[in-house]
Structure formats: C-alpha cells, structure tokens
Amino acid sequence: MIRIEPFGAEALMLTLADTPKERLPGRIAQLADNLSQALGDALIDLVPGWTTLLIHYDVMQYSLSEIQARVMPVIEDWHQESDDLERVARLHEIPVWYAGPDLESVAKACSLAVEQVIDLHSRREYRVGAIGFAPGFPYLGELDERLVLPRLASPRVRVEAGSVAIAERQTAIYPQASPGGWHVLGFSAWRLFDPQAEPPCPLAAGDRVRFIAVDEATYRAEGGQAAWD
Question: Which of 19, 28, 38, 113 has CA atoms 20 to 30 A from the CA of 107?
Fold first, then answer.
C-alpha cells in the first residue's frame, strides 16, 4: 500500500512498496520523471530509495496540502500503469580487478573457491536501488544468495575509493575513501562521483550494472591504483 507522509518541513516521503522488487527501482525512476514534469520549478530534489521516493519542494510555492494535491494524481496514474513500464534502464559495464583483501575470507566463509566467488559476483546483472551513504555510493542488488554475508564485525576505519564490496544481499563501490564494514572483493578505476560533471554521478536509481573481471594491468592502465599500495 502506498503511503504519503510529511518528512520535515519541506519534504514528502512516498513509501511505494513494503519490500524491494526487481523492477521497482526503474518504476520509481519513472515516477520521479513524472513528478519532475508535474512540479516544475517547485521541485527542489527527488531522492529515490529501494521502496521510497523523497520529494523536497519549495514551501514558498506550495503548502503541504497543495503539494499533496499535486502529487496524488501523478502517483495514481503511475500506480495504474503496468509493472513493465519503467524508465529505460542504462547498462553500465564496470571493470573490476578482483584482488580485494576480503576475497579469500569471503570464499572460505561461503565454502567456495576464489574463482567461484569472482564468477558469481560478475555473472549477475544488478539494479541500482539507491544512491546514498556517501556521494555517488550505489547500492546494487540483488547478490547471489551463495555470497550473502553479514557486514564485518569490526568496520575498517578506511576503505579506499574504488573498492568493490558486498554485504547482506547487496554489492557496492566506494566512490571516496571512507570508513566501511563491507567485504572488499576488488577494485574499480571508475569515478563514481565528480562534482564538476553533469550529472555528478554516472549511475542513477534503476540503472543496470554488470561487473567485468579484468587483470591488474588493465585495471592500472585505466588509471586505477590498488588500495593499500
């Protein structure tokens, strides 16, 4: 059941499902496009999540009741559409050098060979469910159930930028060096956040991602530097 609730003084939180679904990020991205057209310059920002969409709006243009009245018809039309109607999802193929500090421990914990971990992680196509935690940090799901592990018992003080990691049922790439408790499988030379670019993040909710296993020479040729060099 869809819920619409005030979220602070200048935002509405739309809860669009109780649990994540494969097509839902793309559907939410389509709803975001529809709301952007409907609200025009009264819209400040849209923040999609796995099952939610946060709307920041200009309170100088709309009161709470007025913004709800503008939003409701858009949501109703969206809700009546087929689940197949979603924003066209871009596919990003991201090279990864699988040489992370947790690769062997993940293999052991999952009762797999290292080669099997790499194969299971790279063979699957993921959806970007949300961007959060840090600028450009993409939450990607769902991970193969054979790789599902809890977060590290003791988070690292520093995880290097470009680290490709897993935790629970998700995988992600750290855009910047930061603390983190995910299991690091490898490294990517991709730049996931550039404040000077438009858009600053090349990934968006609803996009598709595939990881391509590459060797160290290819990784470094693309500008990558191994963490802990």
Answer: 19
**Residue 215's Cα: distance from chain center in Å?**
25
Q: Check if the beta carbon of residue 191 is closer than 8 Å to that of residue 10.
A: no
Residue-wise burial string across 18-46, b where 16 or more C-beta atoms lie within 10 A, e elsewhere: eebeeebbbbbbbbbebbeeebeebbeeb
Entry pTM: 0.85
Amino acid at 5: E
CATH code of the region 91-221: 2.40.100.10
Q: Where do runs of H (alpha helix) occur along 19-133?
A: 24-39, 64-80, 103-109, 114-123
55 neighbors 14 (Cβ within 8 angstroms): yes
Q: For 10-19, what is each residue's pLDDT tens digit?
A: 999 999 998 8
Strand partners, 95: 212
Q: Which fold has domain 3-80?
A: Gyrase A; domain 2 (3.30.1360)
